[in-house]
Each structure stands twice: as C-alpha cells, then as structure tokens.
Design brief:
Length: 299
C-alpha cells in the first residue's frame, strides 16, 4: 500500500475526473489560523479537517493532549468529510505533512485502504502552478463504514518497557528529547530508553519526504533492521504519525503510542530521563520553560 501521492499524479487523476476526497488538515501547535488559511486558498474541492475537534477528543491528563476519538465519533467525522466506502483519500497540509499524517494514520487504522499523504502538501501544489480556490467546501455526507485497530499501537504500560524488547523512537525536536525545553507538557525530557529521531529529519527543505533509501539509512543508523519491533511517540501522538509514515516509506512497520509524552509526563509514577542518551538522570518536576514564540509544529 503506497504512503504518498505526488502532486503531478494527483493533478492528473483529478483532471481525468477520478473521484478523490481531499482533506486539508492545516494545523500547528499554538496557532488557530488553519481554517482561516484554508478559506483563503486550498486545493479545489478540499474539505477542511479540524485536528483538535475532529481528529482528537478533549485533552485528559490520563490520555494525553490529543486522545484518539472513539471509532463512532471518527466515523461520523469521516462521513461529514464526504467519504464513501472504497474512496481514494488524499490528506495534505502546509507543514510538511506533520499534521496531515494524523488523518492518514487514523484513516488507515480505521480500515480505509486507499489513503495517501500529498507529498510536499500545499507548497508543492503551489510550486507546480496548479489552481487553488477559496471559501468553504461542504461535502455531501458520505456512507463510509470504519472500524479500529488496523494499525499497531502500544499503551503507556507497554511504552514503559518497550526498549527492552524493541526500539522506541521519540519524534520530537532534540531539545525537547534532551529536556532543555518543554513548551507544554508538565515535565521535560523523554521516556527512559527512547532514542531521539526528530520528524524534521524525515523531510527535505521543500517539505517532501526524503527518498526511501535515505529514510532507510537514517533509521538503520538508529539500529533498526527488518526484525526490529519499533514504536514511536511524540508530544501528543500527532507528529509521531508522520514518523510512522516515514518508517513505512523506508520499509519498516511501527506502532504508535497515542498518548505519547503528554500522557507519560502527566503520570508522576513514570520516570523521565534527560540528556542525549536513552537513559540519563531523572528529570525532577516541571521545567517551567516555554517556547520563544508560543508555537511549534510538534504535538
């Protein structure tokens, strides 16, 4: 099953009249301008997907900042976006697929088979000179039937000992992994045993994913091979989905820890490590730090 669709392929298929459901998933942590930017310009026919309300439940300390919604609630949203059984779905954003990957993972997890990330997203579409449109698109309600559990995931308890049986990757920025800064979660650092693998290392400067062989080399340098049991977390389970997409492109299967560090760090019983190494000194209490600009693509 392919992970990506290129801009030229999408344009050709749309030009040929093929039915494709386009999902605009513009969202960045700490900002609320995604919908406004969508209204100003989006791919023709694209429906806006609001990540905090449609791809997540309300934050709960015991489940994290972006808990996965129930299968029933997610199916309702997917039908609202106009998805029918058997549809081809393409998700995109304007941040290197960091947000769109959440929709990609959730749809794949729910059983949708033909779902892709638009490689390079809105920037690549603009660069190709293809037409954009403005305003809201309200889809005809679809009839898709979705399930759950088609993509591997792990629990908080499993994350606590995952590094003893496999490889646990932390997809956040290196400074958050090391505990130098923590913009939103209660403690700074990382899950003991996790390896730092920031999602920004998965993409080129134009926001497209690196070629499969480069991604594979990146993950092999972290110790992955065809027998590795891999799991990924980030701040709240959003950008970790991007890492899972990159791993899939590279030929590796990986599980998601949906609650991620936001769930882990809210549980006082969980140790938090700081520093460059997987196991370092425990971090004591909240960091009290905040980001310079109040926003981040990470979640």
């Amino acid at each position: 099953m392919a992970t990506l669709m290129t801009v030229p392929e999408l344009h050709q298929r749309l030009d040929a009249g093929e039915r494709i459901v386009l999902l605009d998933v513009r969202w960045v942590l700490g900002r609320n301008d995604g919908h406004g930017n969508y209204l100003a310009a989006h791919l023709p026919g694209a429906v806006f997907v609001d990540l905090p309300t449609e791809l997540a439940d309300h934050a709960e300390p015991g489940r994290g900042r972006h808990p996965l919604p129930s299968p029933e609630r997610f199916q309702e949203a997917a039908r609202r976006w106009g998805i029918n059984d058997g549809d081809t779905i393409v998700a995109y954003d304007d941040s290197g697929s960091m947000a769109a990957a959440r929709a990609w993972w959730m749809l794949r997890n729910a059983g949708a088979e033909a779902v892709y990330l638009l490689d390079g997203g809105l920037a690549a579409w603009r660069a190709a000179g293809y037409r954009l449109e403005a305003g809201e698109v309200t889809a005809v309600v679809g009839n898709v039937s979705l399930g759950d559990g088609r993509m591997p995931s792990i629990t908080e308890q499993e994350a606590s000992h995952w590094s003893r049986q496999g490889i646990l990757l932390d997809a956040r920025a290196g400074e958050r992994y090391r505990g130098e800064v923590e913009p939103i979660d209660p403690r700074a650092g990382h899950i003991p045993g996790a390896l730092s693998a920031p999602t920004t290392g998965n993409v080129a400067s134009d926001g497209t994913f690196l070629p499969a062989e480069e991604l594979r080399r990146r993950f092999e340098l972290l110790g992955l091979d065809e027998n590795s049991n891999v799991a990924v977390y980030c701040g709240s389970g959003v950008t970790a989905a991007h890492e899972i997409a990159a791993l899939e492109i590279a030929g590796f299967n990986a599980a998601l820890f949906p609650g991620s560090f936001s769930q882990w760090s809210n549980n006082a019983a969980n140790d938090v490590a700081v520093g460059d190494a997987p196991f370092e000194d425990a971090a004591a209490g909240p960091s009290g730090m905040s980001p310079a600009d109040g926003s981040s693509v990470e979640a």
